[in-house]
Amino acid sequence: MLLLGCQLKRAPPQKVSCGFCAVMGKLQSKLRHSTYRYNRPDGVTEEKIQTRAFQEYSPAHMDTVSAVAALNSDLCVSGGKDKTVVAYNWKTGNVVKRFRGHEHEITKVACVHKSNQFFSASRDRMVMMWDLCGSSQPRQQFSGHAMVVTGLAVSPDSSQLCTGSRDNSLLLWDVGTGQCVERASLSRNLVTHLCWVPREPYILQTSEDKTIRLWDARGLQVAHMFPTKQHIQTYCAVSEDGHKFISCSSGFGGEGCEATPAFSPCLWMDQGL
């Protein structure tokens, strides 16, 4: 595995509001100032200050927004502590549709590529599938975890769903039937996030044990495990070509709180190198 010799760190944030992330209805334009620190490969640290305008929105949820994902260029989907899932036009500041069905806080949302369908996970240990053009009732329900669901990833062809939980397990589901087809469990693997690698049968996963794992969906086996990080890894994302990924940590005591890019081993694994 090759790791990039750089880390992107964010300085202590100022108290600001973000229209997209907070899922709010348009009120007024404001300026936001952000300072970032970047560790270059030669060891030199650079700081950059960004100033840009953003829109502030009126609340669409009755409580804290806990998850958000882009459905298309105009709409995003959010989940909150109010147990609801909301489809929201972030350009106009309007709620398009509200979905209710979970009994506890929403923890993750994931959208189906080029579709009006999306998934939500909750502390009620359930995962539900919704359709923006359908009814307000879930199209499909997935029940199999023993604890809160903390990871959602949809396969590139939308036929499979991978879910992860604090119960140390990953489940692979057939979206059409709602049946669990594979199950894997590893000690201390408290899942924090899942991301399906584009055009590949691989799933990237972060965990509270400070590791990043790459799973092969063909049998749901660990295909690669990256060196253990210093801090708990809370999120991961993969580039569109599947060759690079980034993971984030929350840090502790003023250390960490960083995003770390790296090369994905998917390309070399598929070529047998």
General description of the model:
This protein is mainly beta. The chain has a domain at 1-59. 3% of the residues lie in helices and 54% in strands. The protein contains two helices and 22 strands. The protein has helices at 19-22, 266-270; strands at residues 7-10, 24-39, 45-59, 65-70, 75-80, 84-89, 94-100, 106-111, 117-122, 126-131, 140-143, 149-154, 160-165, 169-174, 179-185, 191-196, 202-207, 212-216, 221-225, 233-238, 244-249, 258-263. Strands 3-2-1-22-21-20 form a six-stranded antiparallel sheet. Strand 20 and strand 21 form a beta hairpin. The protein is globular, with a radius of gyration of 19 Å. The termini are close together. Residues 1-28 have low confidence and may be disordered.
Computed over alpha carbons, the radius of gyration is 19 Å
Identify the strand order in the major beta sheet: 3-2-1-22-21-20
Low-pLDDT parts are 1-28
Task: List the secondary-structure elements in sequence, H or E.
Answer: EHEEEEEEEEEEEEEEEEEEEEEH
Per DSSP, what share of the residues sits in E-state strands of 2 or more residues? over 45%
The end-to-end distance, rounded to whole angstroms, is 11 Å
Structural class: mainly beta
The outline comes out as: globular
Number of helices: 2
Number of strands: 22
Helicity range: under 10%
Mind describing the biggest β-sheet?
Answer: 6 strands, antiparallel
